[in-house]
Write a structure and sequence with these properties.
- Helices cover 27% and strands 13% of the residues.
- It is an alpha+beta fold and 120 residues long.
- It has one domain.
- A hairpin with a 2-residue loop joins strand 3 (90-93) and strand 4 (96-99).
- The model has no long low-confidence stretch (mean pLDDT 85).
- Pfam families: DUF5522.
- This is Cysteine-rich CWC family protein.
- InterPro entries: DUF5522.
Amino acid sequence: MNTTKTKVCLSCDSSFSCGDISVENKCWCNDYPPIFNLSEGGDCLCPVCFKEACEDKIDAYIETLTPEKALRNKAAALPKTEQLIEGIDYYLEDEKYVFKAWFHLKRGSCCGNKCRHCPY
C-alpha cells in the first residue's frame, strides 16, 4: 500500500510528494542528516527548500567550530547516511569531488591529507 502524500512546501508554496512511508518509514528526507527537530519547522519542506535549509543549518554550525570543538562534534555521532549529498557532503570542481567540512566531521577525525575544508 503506497502512502505517498502530496504536500505544500511551507517555504515556497510548491506541491511535492512526501515519500512512501509504508516502506520502513522511509521518505526522501530520510537521506539527509537528521539535524532538525520536528518542532522547529512545523510541516515539511519541498526537496529543494529542505536541502537549502540543511545546508544553511550545517554552515551555521560549522562557523561555530574551532579545531578543538571539531574533535567533539555532533556530526560524528549522528546516524550514518548511505549516500553522499552534493552541496552538503561535497561539491564538484573540475569534475572532481571536493569534500566539505560536514563530510570530514562525520568521519570524526583528520585524515592528514591537508584537505581544503578540514575542520580539524
